[in-house]
């Protein structure tokens, strides 16, 4: 069988498996729809959290970003993994002890205000919409190459699959589907990395091959000879300030992501929340320690395969022709010397390789078996679809539970709440599909924008809500609005050429920081405004201050199974 047949077979089998799991775990009550009935075992929640968190950005885009950014690409590894540790240690157990359904639910009750709940719900929708745009683009890329459809049809197919899981099964269906998707995506990633590692270095363990072989110095030397930026030298693509700010934005944003935080509401107790955080960290580390090695192997292989070839020689390679048809790989002999040369500037480079196709194309570039190519396509889809499902549910919960039920219709019955929740997911899928077809950047970049919004809006409100009993509703609302509006406006101005269609960005940076790191300024503003406003207005009621102290005390944690 050829590559396309293997891909159709493997993707078809995995999708049928996901649909079967989703059907088995369909729900008819709101507790199952929002928090899976709080009955998910710790290890299963760890796998689901890893799949939810390791989106298309981690699977499809991260190794590509590292391959083209070199040493500076480490910001994504440090930011995303560091942020998860921050979330697991500082926030998850306390939020689980509070025992609510969603992040806006926590903020609304902690700050004794439906206005604060509504502001947090709006922030959740903005963050999730930005994030899901990256996932939909990843889905479109996979389908456009391996199912031989255009990117619009690829996004539409992905929308239909996600809608089935999320609308029918809610959090319960999504959770068990994500457990299966983690298995598929990590298997696909590791098989590719092990095979190409053994092929290039003779060592099948990617991490050891990267550390003890000379593959990275060889790649560095090739880049120098071609006039590209040094692969192993720091600050070639980002300034020191941007490395610091992007890493911080990703860390703080990870700790404020609503679709990841609500996963800790699905386990039976606080102890299970801690255990599932540990399992998730282990599952995430497997992929994140492999990604830098895969990035080096993939970049080395691409340069060895394409650089210096004639256009005719390059187009005699099957995978080159197929990726060219998608428009994500472009070959052009610009200087007319008959040879293709890759440079760091797209204006002069004769090989333009979309960074988002590095992982997906690696099995073909390395001439691995066709079934491996199909498995990687299934892994990329699993990563993107699992995260998209979680994001859609977070948006649905923010509107149907926090705005419709808690503010607009407190007397709504179970059937009405489920109906609104499912209708919200349908509308959110349509919007996500639009952004999937018209993304404002590479998958990893778009996801980084979402992290910046989360860092600037929800993270300060959550951390202050747990550790500062003097923080009141006036301070929290003012802080969330300040951080969210500032960061959103800065991202639009710095990326106005792609978002507003201007000829050049209205701003190149803000105080030297680019769009991916500007969320840190938003977070700093949020903390300052929250603190100042809270100290100028009345303190929270006594029972709220006692509640904040109680959240941080370990004793009685087991009682968290009871609803507040």
UniProtKB/TrEMBL annotation:
It is found in: Membrane. This is Cation/acetate symporter. GO terms for molecular function: transmembrane transporter activity. One of its GO terms (biological process) is carboxylic acid transport. Its main location: membrane. One of its GO terms (cellular component) is plasma membrane. It is a multi-pass membrane protein. It comes from the Bacteria. The chain crosses the membrane at residues 6-25, 75-95, 116-134, 146-167, 179-198, 243-265, 277-298, 371-399, 419-437, 443-464, 476-494, 514-533. Gene3D superfamilies: Sodium/glucose cotransporter. Belongs to the sodium:solute symporter (SSF) (TC 2.A.21) family. Keywords: Cell membrane, Membrane, Transmembrane, Transmembrane helix, Transport.
